[in-house]
């Protein structure tokens, strides 16, 4: 049931907008209060009058209307809701959400909100499978937007494939699940390492690797979306800091270890960083100079501290759950099983980093989750989806509050 829940339903311009009317009916039957924002294109498919009749509330559509803005500004619209539902979510609105545009009331409310957002995409199959839409959806997932559908079937344009908006009953089920899930990691502390490390040879040269930090940053974001207080310890990366969490920037493995020991006791540590195994034994304090005719200098290496193994050591400060990564180019699972034992961590996320898999710097990842319970094979997913799944599993492991309590 959704008794007393306040849903702000954003209806964008798609043929599936007619299903939003049934969605309103079902939500109200379950006790929810529904208020609608109708986009200009949405009004080509459903009338404000029918939405007004179904919601028994006025319909908001105009960003600059004297009446809409004076009676209910975009901030207040999102403040007054427990959840924002975008149904249908068109390719255009998803693109504007991903880009952070605020060029009408719907996109402005979506940019201004700090409430959970559920999107039910509806569009032509080619638009849904287009790389631009896939990238927008991955971006939005990475920011915590939940999705329901689209379903596969024959569409209004007579093409077959994924693109049909989920049925109103499915959207209601997703809304109930989302509201029940709440923020299961609220009150939990998480530490995530991400990116490569840089080991100085001299003041201008270093040893490093190809890690982009995309997977580690996505995990930090996904944990924060579930309510965890996250410290992200990141090596040098070219991607932006995730908003709303503490980011500690480091260069070397020694600095990364020191930063990881700083936050004190955490509930979960996820070591996704590609830490350099070795550093220069004696980094030069001045730039090493080429001397004409002289042999190249030899570089003596020393081992770096193993951060994952250090955090996994038993003791009162050990996190309840320590998760490591195993980047392998061959014998993926066997090496990961062995690594879990050697490092003393609880789970290993094993990922295939052979050049053919395109994991380094790419958008997708193919992983296995190795735990004491066995080995799980996950499908190839966007890095944000791997992160969301992992965060969900972490929430399960650390003990979700019971749904009844979470829904209060
Ligand atoms: O030993 P290997 O580098 O294969 O192990 C990978 C896992 O160990 C990753 O989780 C990585 O973040 C972590 N690691 C670490 N410190 C190191 C080396 C690896 O935390 N010095």
How would you briefly describe this protein structure?
By secondary structure, the protein is of the alpha/beta class.
Report on the architecture of this protein.
By secondary structure, this protein is an alpha/beta fold. The protein has 2 domains: 6-181, Flavin prenyltransferase-like (Rossmann fold); 189-397, CoaB-like (Rossmann fold, 3-Layer(aba) Sandwich). The strands form 6 sheets. The protein has an 8-stranded mixed beta sheet, sandwiched between helices. The termini are close together. Mean pLDDT is 90; it is low at 402-408. The chain has helices at 17-29, 48-55, 66-71, 74-79, 91-99, 105-112, 125-129, 131-142, 168-181, 214-225, 253-261, 307-312, 332-343, 383-398, 403-407, and strands at residues 6-11, 33-38, 59-60, 83-89, 117-121, 146-147, 151-154, 160-164, 189-194, 199-200, 206-207, 229-234, 246-249, 268-271, 278-280, 301-303, 321-328, 347-352, 364-365, 367-371, 374-377, 381-382. Strand 2, helix 2 and strand 3 (59-60) form a beta-alpha-beta unit. 43% of the residues are buried.
